[in-house]
Amino acid sequence: MSDFIYCLNSSTIRPTPILEKIRIAGTTGYEAIELWHDDIDAYLKQGGTLSDIKKALDDQRLNVPTTIYLKGWFDTTGAEHQRELDECKRRMEQAVAVGAEYIISGPPAGKADFELGARNYRELLEIGLEIGVKPAMEFLGFVDELNTIDDALTIVQKAGHPAGTVVLDPFHIFRGGGAMEAISRLAADQIAISHFNDTPASPPRIEQHDKDRVMPGDGHLDLKRYLQLLKQTGYNRWLSLELFRQDLWSQNPESVARDGLERMRQIAEEF
Asked: What is the mean pLDDT of residues 68-77?
């Protein structure tokens, strides 16, 4: 019996059409799926509707922890900021329509103005809560700044909003050079979701990117310790398999999803 809820981040089987991704997640045993807004937009452009997506999710009895993602909100001001917020609102409305609890909110690629970003994150939270979804602060290991748990937690704390949360991910923790033990500085209600993956020993940490992620258990990370730290916070919600591998995208998506779920279970349920 797992202490977590297993989720499929739909990037793991990226080329697959969105309704097929939903079917695969349901039939292979996941309880939840994370959806990307580019997939949603592609489906709508082809004549589909948000109601179609919600029905497919309901048919498979899948929850949607998050949709991915919001950008451009962190470090903009004035008219540019308003344009970015308008796009964020559009995506938030999609998130609500498909039943998402959170919407992942990414950091800038370069230097990060933490004071401005914190003010903008608070604003984003207020807008999201009015629409019906909670923006979650994501750190990315390969950006110049805001690449560790501590950085994301600083934004949440400076924003000073009780609904502030962070997104955890073993790959980003390793790639950003932060400490896995920093998970202990979080309370369970500060964690929106935990992505799950592993990283290889080569190439060197500083050269790794999304494409280098590997299946849980195929890399060198101490994922059991990662899960112990999560459990110690009291977090008991989603573990979401998130990979971006071309070799997996060329394989049978149902087999990839099933294998990924088994890998997560082997690690999460055997200690």
From this structure: 97
Tokens of 87: 């796009």
Separation of alpha carbons 120 and 106, rounded Å: 12
- Cα separation of 137 and 237, whole Å? 17
Across all residues in the chain, what is the average pLDDT?
97
pTM for the whole thing?
Answer: 0.97
Mean pLDDT in residue range 38-57: 98
Q: Which amino acid is at 145?
A: E
The CATH number linked to 48 is 3.20.20.150
- φ/ψ of residue 46, rounded to 5: -85, 0
Which residue has tokens 């559009």? 90
CA atoms of 72 and 85, how far apart (whole Å): 8
Q: For residue 216, give the 3-state DSSP assignment.
A: coil
Distance in angstroms (rounded) separating the CA atoms of residues 131 and 67: 14
Burial of 225-239, coded b for 16+ CB within 10 Å and e otherwise, reads ebbebbbebebebbb
* DSSP 8-state assignment for residue 12: G
Count of structural domains, the chain: 1
CA 33 to chain centre: 10
Cα–Cα distance, 148 to 173 (Å, whole number): 6
Decide: 78 and 120 in contact? Cβ < 8 Å. no
Full domain range(s) for residue 43:
5-268
Rounded CA separation 241/32 (Å): 11
